[in-house]
Design brief:
Elements lengths: L6 E4 L5 H12 L3 E6 L3 H14 L4 E5 L5 H14 L5 E4 L14 H28 L3 E5 L12 H21 L4 E7 L11 H8 L10 H13 L8 E4 L8
Parallel strand pairs: 1-2, 1-4, 2-3, 4-5, 5-6, 6-7
């Protein structure tokens, strides 16, 4: 796919991996529709930054993707922004620990909703425009979809579901739409910061002995969009060799 002038919807685009994807894809000539939930300041700053580089190449919209009406509104607005969507990057994600004995229905709904339900229904809402444009979907999964993260059972279940969804949607939406995923390893530490000993212990189980950067994930996303015409239903692991030690 020649990505110049392609229209991309990125969920959770205001910060971290989402923002890195937005900047890299924009630098390749894409128009980027930036969804955010609560990070209004960061989203507006990013949108302004990109539009200064190329006028009317970035737009933003706030939405709670757990609300189906708001989710559909995002899909509709993104489709109308520049005349269709070529790429959907499902990046928005809730992440927090849940003790197995104390998991609430609200936590279950939030973690499954942001990591699995919203990506599915966005794919559904955008299926026609993606098919018309011979587009693609890239889901941001997690290495813990395959091997659950201790203390995070619901999050791990949700990401495992997203990995399964990536494969089945590749069948359901093919041949017009390719669907792939990227599974990050140790890229950014959680917002509720870990202690230094815990970080050191984690990095000792990474073959490259260092954490990655959001740009590493963005480059993998770009590859799957731009240079992977014969790849679908696959999940590209970007973890510095972390899963070699699981």
């Amino acid at each position: 796919m020649n990505v110049a002038a392609k229209n991309v919807l990125i969920t959770g685009a205001a910060k971290r991996i989402g923002a890195a994807c937005a900047r890299l894809l924009h630098s390749e000539g894409c128009n980027v529709f930036l969804h955010y939930r609560s990070s209004a300041t960061e989203a507006q700053q990013l949108c302004d930054e990109l539009n200064q580089l190329r006028p009317d190449s970035a737009r933003i919209m706030q939405a709670d993707l757990l609300n189906m009406a708001e989710l559909k509104a995002v899909a509709r607005a993104a489709s109308l922004a520049w005349g269709g969507i070529d790429v959907l990057v499902n990046n928005a994600s809730s992440f927090y620990p849940t003790a197995m004995t104390d998991v609430s229905e609200q936590q279950w709904d939030e973690l499954l909703g942001s990591n699995l339900k919203a990506p599915f229904f966005l794919a559904q809402a955008l299926a026609k425009t993606l098919a018309d444009n011979k587009g693609c979907i890239v889901n941001i999964v997690d290495i813990h979809a395959e091997r659950g993260l201790s203390g995070y059972p619901v999050y791990s279940i949700a990401k495992a579901g997203l990995a399964a969804m990536t494969k089945v949607l590749a069948k359901e939406l093919g041949p017009e739409v390719r669907v792939n995923g990227v599974a990050p390893g140790a890229i950014l530490w959680p917002d509720n910061d870990l202690s230094e000993p815990v970080k050191v212990e984690i990095l000792q189980r990474v073959a490259l002995k260092r954490s990655g950067e959001p740009f590493d994930i963005a480059k993998a996303v770009l590859f799957l969009i731009k240079d992977a015409d014969y790849i679908t239903g696959q999940i590209l692991t970007v973890d510095g060799g972390r899963t070699l030690f699981c």
